[in-house]
Amino acid sequence: MALDFIFMLTRNDRTVKDAMVHLQTALAAGVHHIGFKDIGLPVEDLKELNQTIQAAGATSYLEVVSLGVESEVVSAKSAVEIGVDFLLGGTHVEAVLPTLAGSGIQYYPFPGRVVGHPSVLEGTVEDIVISAKYMANLEGVHGLDLLAYRAKGDVEALMAAVCSAVDKPVIIAGSIETPERIQALQDAGAAGFTIGTAALDGKFFAGDQDLGSQLSAIQVALAKMENCISPYGKVNLEQEFSKFTDHWSPKVAGRINNMQVKIAKFSGSFTWHYHDDEDELFLVNKGLLLMKFRDREEVIEKGEFIIVPRGVEHCPVALTDECEIILLEPATTLNTGNVENDFTISELENVS
C-alpha cells in the first residue's frame, strides 16, 4: 500500500486516558503506524505506549500540540526522551531542529499558521505553500504534517498544491472522517494520513462503532483504493481433481507472478524429457510417484515433493493406478520439454 494509515490514540488533540487499551486493539487489528499527542498523559505513560508500539514492530509517532516556542522545544525534548520514530507537528522549526539533531527522529512539522485547540490551519493556499517550501528545504526536516481538513477554503486544492510544491512526503492530519477524504488525499499525492477521534468515537464506519470495527473499516477502505483486495478464495484440491479424468494433461489451477499452479493425474509411465529453462516442482497429493533420473530413481509419497532442475532429463511414473500431482512451474513450461509426441499439450486448460 502506498498510503500510511497512522492511528492516533487521541481525541480532540489530546492523548486519551485509556490509550493503552486502545493500543492493544490497534495492534491486534494489524495497524502498523500508531501515534499520540504530547498532552493528555504523563511522559512516563507515553514512554510505555511508545515501548509497546515499537516492541510490536510498529512505527511510533508523537504529534506536537504546543503552540509556543518554549513549549514546542519541551515537546521535542520529550520526543527524544520517549524515543519515538517520528515527531509530527509544531511550527517553530528552527527552534526544534537543534533538539532533534542526532536523535534519528523523522521530523514532520506543520506548514502554515496553526492556532487554537483543537488546532486550526489559517492562511491562503499560497501562504501555506510558501511555508511548506521553506520548511521542506531545511536540513533535518524529513516531511510535512498538513492540517488540511482543519483549513478553510478548497481543501483538495490545498493538498494538491502542497504535495506538488515539495519533494518530501506529506502526511495529512485533522478531521479525516470518511473514505472520500482518504481518496481525496490519495489523489492529491499524500504519503499518509492520521485518524484518531473519528475511529475512537465510531464516526468513520456507520456500522459497528467499536474501535476494532472502525479500524478494520479504515483499512478495508484503504485496501480498496490501493486495489489491494484479493480476488482469490481458497481452493479445495479434492474438488478440483474431481473435475477431470484424463491423464498426463495438466490443468491450470492458479497463478503466482509468472508461475502456474497446475494439477494433473498420472497413470503409467510418461516420456523421458528435460526443460531447457524451467525448474519444476512435483508435489504428490494422492498415490505414489516414481521419478526416474539417468543416475537414480526417487519414490515420492503423498505429502512429499521433488524439484527437477532445468536441463535434467527425467521420466515420471505413477506407481499406483493413478497418482494426483500438483505442479509449480513457470507458465512457459511445455509438459514434454524438449520432446514433442502424443503427450505434448501446447495450450493448457483452466481446471475451473
From TrEMBL:
TM region positions: none
One Pfam family it belongs to: Cupin_2
SUPFAM superfamilies in alphabetical order: Ribulose-phoshate binding barrel, RmlC-like cupins
Superkingdom classification of source: Bacteria
Protein name per its UniProtKB record: Cupin domain-containing protein
Residue ranges occupied by any Cupin type-2 domain in the UniProt entry: 268-326
Signal peptide: none
